[in-house]
Specification:
There is one protein chain. The chain is mainly beta. The chain has five helices and 20 strands. The strands form four sheets. The chain has a seven-stranded antiparallel sheet, with helices on one face. β8 and β9 form a beta hairpin. The longest helix is centred in the N-terminal third of the chain and has 10 residues. The protein is flat, with a radius of gyration of 21 Å.
């Protein structure tokens, strides 16, 4: 219950919570947990006026403490996506797998590896993502471009101005770069490339699945809300009685980012997803949210 309870992991378990969430592709939950300003977490500590890490999530005790500093690993490994390959020590092989989360519009990080500087810098502007990479000599990279649920037929990927992916297939070749595979599904889908040493600039369009879906139960109803998707004309709200679906459509053209489900029975558990609709088609479904209405 990220929004209701906030962060409860201690200094021992916190690092493993971060890794479990990020490794499961849920860096969005990591972001939500730590950016809240009204519940324990980094956002809460900053809101209290702290300028250094505190010992407690509520800003208590020591005011200059490193025990809750595990988020730094997530910044480099997951937000910027610079991930060493354990099978290739010394950065002979790396993965670049950035995480686009929350309302972040840019991230930049460098790693001064034993083979040279590895740079990962991404921006999000008007439904376009740009990823600038530098891979040093002697290092090979597997590059994961997140599509966030963008319909594949409308996805266009460019590298330094050359269109390398269009209409669901490779469109051209670029020196040092080879298409590897499509990985994942829905909002956790990636187009994966193998890259040799050098500098690259990837640019691709996004029509992502909605994020931040929340389901709040009350007596005889469930209130749904989610974050807006740029260029979405409406949303499709779906519901299931079992986790993971199959889902039936409740609203095929819901305007705005809120929907009240009044056709519920108290004591029944409901599972919801939302997809964005627009000129690009229908996005992938959001992550699932669940609620059980009950009489008060």
């Amino acid at each position: 219950n990220v929004r209701g309870q906030g962060l409860t992991a201690s200094d021992i378990g916190h690092r493993y919570l971060l890794r479990a969430l990020a490794d499961a592709g849920r860096s969005d939950v990591v972001f939500d947990l730590h950016s809240q300003t009204n519940k324990p977490g980094y956002g809460y500590i900053l809101n209290l006026g702290a300028t250094a890490l505190t010992e407690g999530w509520d800003g208590s005790a020591s005011q200059d403490h490193f025990m809750l500093g595990h988020i730094m690993e997530w910044f480099y490994h997951d937000l910027a996506g610079i991930q060493p390959d354990p099978a290739s020590p010394g950065f002979g092989q790396v993965a670049i797998k950035p995480a686009f989360v929350g309302d972040l519009t840019w991230v930049q990080a460098t790693n001064q590896s034993t083979r040279g500087t590895i740079l990962s810098r991404w921006t999000l502007t008007n439904n376009w993502a740009t990823l600038d990479l530098t891979i040093p000599i002697g290092t090979e990279a597997t590059v994961y471009l997140p599509t966030l649920g963008t319909p594949m037929p409308g996805l266009v990927i460019q590298e330094s101005g050359t269109t390398i992916w269009q209409n669901g297939a490779t469109a051209a070749t670029v020196s040092g770069l080879t298409f590897d595979q499509l990985e994942g599904a829905g909002s956790q889908a990636y187009v994966v490339w193998a890259a040799g040493s050098g500098s690259y600039q990837f640019r691709w369009n996004l029509f992502p699945a909605p994020t931040g879906l929340a389901a709040v139960a009350a007596n005889g109803q469930v209130a749904l809300s989610w974050n807006a998707v740029p260029n979405a004309s409406s949303y499709e709200v779906k519901r299931s009685l079992t986790p993971g679906g199959p889902y039936t459509t409740l609203a095929g053209g819901a305007a705005g980012t809120n929907y009240p489900d009044m056709a519920v029975t108290n004591g029944t558990h409901y599972y919801y997803v939302v997809a964005a609709l627009g000129a690009s088609g229908e996005s992938a479904d959001s992550f699932e949210a669940a609620a059980e209405p009950e009489a008060i």
